[in-house]
Each structure stands twice: as structure tokens, then as C-alpha cells.
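Input (structure):
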């Protein structure tokens, strides 16, 4: 992936990371910016609230449908998931609709594979779900298309643009048009209660 594509993928670090630091103002660390752009949700109500704030893609290229149907056999969409992760189930359902409409392969990958992949691209690991597009038979050419669940129109355009990037369109053109990643991820599982363990002892 090009440096520009990698930089665009890092857009999840949030607008705070792009704001100028005024004299006397305290700088925003990368960690703080990542936290500001990530929205862990534990229930359906919170997930719908965050999804309700996501801008919906309304402008599509005229060749979108032909491109997506014509390139169905060339690419595979991969996503991470975790037990009890509501945004993972939501993204899986939306990608399932995309698969039925356009005939693309959609499958899951392990969290370990995803963390290695994120590290290779310089992406901060923020939890599940993360979705990627890659050519069938080539695991080294990958483009992130969602970090957190997203609305179907946004996913569709991101998949179209990622496919264009992987088939020769200049990345700078495609990346600028991608929908921003939402950061709507599942809450991490809670560790066993130490209080409960003490009571047993």
C-alpha cells in the first residue's frame, strides 16, 4: 500500500490529530486521538445511536454496479469478529447483503491475523470489527475498507474504490473519496471479577 493510502487509513485517529496546536495549547497525543475516534458499544441502542451520526454516501460513480458485478470473482472481503461483538454481527449482516447483491466472497479472519496486518500497515489496533479487501490469491495487497461497522452505502462505495485502487486507479484519487471509518467497535470482554474470585477463596 502506498504512503498516501496508509495515511488515509490512519484517518481513524480523528480530527483532533489534524488540528493545529496554538501557542500555549496542549498537544493531542496519537493515543488520545485514537480514543476520541473509537466508539465502543455494548448494546444495540448505543450502536444505533452512533450509526445515526454517520454521514450517508449519496453520490456514486456511474459505473459502480457494473464494476462491482463484473469484478466479483477478483476480490475477497475479509473481516474480524469476536464473541458477543454487536458491531461485528452488524457488519457481517451488511457485507452479507453486499455479497448477495454483487456475488463477492466475504469471510472472517482471526484477530491475530488482523493485528499482524494492521501492524504491517501502521494502523493502530482498535478492536473488532475491521474489514479489508484483497485480490483473490494475493494476501499482501490489502486495503482497509471499514474500521467499525458502517452503513451499507458507505461500505459499497469503499469497496468500489478499494477495487479501483487494486486494479490501477491512482490511490490518491480513490482514497480521497472513501467514506471515513466510523470506529463503532465492540466493547472488549471483561476479565473475570477479582471480587468474585476472592469470595470463592
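Output (sequence):
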Amino acid at each position: 500500500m502506498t504512503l498516501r493510502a496508509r495515511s488515509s487509513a490512519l484517518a481513524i485517529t480523528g480530527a483532533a490529530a489534524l488540528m493545529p496546536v496554538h501557542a500555549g495549547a496542549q498537544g493531542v497525543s496519537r493515543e488520545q486521538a485514537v480514543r476520541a475516534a473509537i466508539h465502543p458499544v455494548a448494546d444495540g441502542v448505543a450502536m444505533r445511536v452512533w450509526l445515526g451520526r454517520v454521514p450517508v454516501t449519496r453520490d456514486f460513480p456511474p459505473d459502480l454496479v457494473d464494476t462491482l458485478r463484473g469484478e466479483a470473482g477478483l476480490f475477497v472481503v475479509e473481516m474480524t469478529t469476536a464473541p458477543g461483538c454487536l458491531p461485528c454481527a452488524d457488519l457481517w449482516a451488511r457485507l452479507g447483503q453486499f455479497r448477495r447483491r454483487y456475488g463477492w466472497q466475504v469471510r472472517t479472519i482471526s484477530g491475530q491475523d488482523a493485528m499482524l496486518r494492521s501492524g504491517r500497515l501502521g494502523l493502530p489496533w482498535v478492536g473488532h470489527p475491521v474489514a479489508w479487501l484483497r485480490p483473490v490469491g494475493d494476501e499482501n495487497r490489502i486495503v482497509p475498507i471499514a474500521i467499525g461497522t458502517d452503513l451499507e452505502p458507505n461500505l459499497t462505495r469503499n469497496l468500489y474504490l478499494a477495487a479501483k485502487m487494486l486494479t490501477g486507479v491512482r490511490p490518491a484519487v480513490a482514497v480521497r473519496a472513501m467514506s471515513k471509518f466510523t470506529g463503532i467497535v465492540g466493547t472488549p470482554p471483561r476479565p473475570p471479577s477479582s471480587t468474585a474470585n476472592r469470595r470463592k477463596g
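Notes: Residues 86-102 form the longest helix (17 residues). The chain is about 45% helix and 15% strand.
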